[in-house]
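It is worth pausing here to work through a concrete case rather than discussing structure prediction in the abstract. The textbook approach is simple: state the sequence, then state the predicted structure, then interpret. We follow exactly that order.
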Amino acid sequence: LAGLYASSQAPAVWQLIAGLGPLTRAELARALGATRRTASQAAMALEKADLATVRPGDHSLAPKAAHRAS
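Step two, the predicted structure:
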């Protein structure tokens, strides 16, 4: 997230979606005890860093698959 605007909640959001799977912004906000706006800013930071993606349909935030070197 270096060099990008990143919500201070982005690492916590990453841990949530990596551990629990896809979550909506409302679910993230409840889990963090934060506003939807804060959850949305953290989600956008993770998307810009190419660590997460928004799924079509339910618009939940999901972690991107890790790229493995061979």
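Step three, interpretation. Strands lie at 52-54, 61-63. The chain is about 45% helix and 10% strand.
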